[in-house]
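Researcher: Sequence recovery benchmark, item below. Answer with residues only.
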């Protein structure tokens, strides 16, 4: 068994540029062009990116809010073969937990024998003969949040190029997950960024059970303009009507930048609505 240290890849240094090979370029291009699930990422790594290393199993595990480690995605082995390892405490002594808590790559090339300090794994075997398991921590904003595991039937000795290759893959996975989270949040959490200021004010007045005519009188616009803006609000927030709009606003006042108050500040000008 070999445990590599806590050296972390830094973007932009000379060593990293040498390692960003055609395999990484292919993977990065695949991420950009394809809306991949994490299971599909694992499959692509096995079939394409890490094929020359004879990797036949890739998995991604994450740290949960309960301070456990949970299986998140995989390709290569049926996860039902390892039911007891789908979620386990972060303080257990395992290659995955060492990689996450100590922020380093854990490199084992003695399989099917596990190192003695991992006594919990002494009776664990893969369904097919394997020689090497490598665990790479995945960071978000310099904090370990998940890890990438690769398993190969080859005896892979640690070397700088392979280490940097795997770290780069970990960074790409982190960026891919971050991008998807941002896109999901944008779709699922409409807020002040998706409504104009005046649309937020109209929504607040709707919450006070004002009619379009009353809102028009308060804000100094025509009833027709208020009606069109109301339609735009419902469309942006995917709401079916005024009752749903009231409920949505009351549940999300802070996200709209409006504190809990009974009245809203009404603009004094009659400048046209932004569409």
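Model:
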């Amino acid at each position: 068994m070999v445990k590599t240290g806590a050296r972390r890849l830094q973007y932009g240094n000379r060593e990293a540029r040498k390692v960003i090979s055609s395999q990484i370029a292919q993977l990065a291009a695949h991420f950009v062009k394809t809306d991949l699930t994490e299971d599909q990422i694992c499959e692509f790594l096995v079939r394409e990116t890490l094929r020359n290393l004879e990797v036949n199993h890739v998995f991604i595990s994450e740290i949960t809010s309960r301070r456990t480690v949970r299986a998140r995605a995989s390709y290569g082995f049926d996860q039902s073969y390892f039911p007891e390892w789908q979620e386990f405490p972060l303080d257990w002594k395992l290659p995955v937990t060492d990689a996450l808590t100590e922020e380093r790559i854990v490199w084992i090339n003695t399989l099917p024998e596990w190192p003695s300090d991992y006594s919990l794994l002494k009776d664990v075997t893969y369904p097919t003969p394997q020689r090497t398991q490598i665990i790479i921590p995945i960071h978000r904003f310099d904090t370990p949040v998940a890890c990438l595991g690769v398993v190969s039937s080859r005896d892979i000795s640690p070397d700088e190029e392979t280490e940097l290759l795997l770290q780069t893959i970990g960074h790409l996975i982190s960026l891919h997950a971050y991008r998807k989270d941002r896109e999901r949040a944008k779709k699922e959490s409409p807020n002040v960024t998706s409504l104009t200021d005046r649309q937020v004010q109209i929504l607040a007045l709707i919450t006070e059970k004002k009619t379009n005519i009353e809102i028009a009188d308060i804000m100094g616009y025509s009833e027709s303009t208020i009606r069109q803006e109301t339609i735009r609000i419902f469309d942006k927030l995917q709401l079916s009507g005024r009752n749903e709009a009231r409920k949505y606003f009351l549940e999300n006042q802070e996200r709209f930048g409006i504190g809990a108050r009974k009245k809203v500040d009404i603009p004094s000008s009659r400048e046209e609505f932004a569409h």
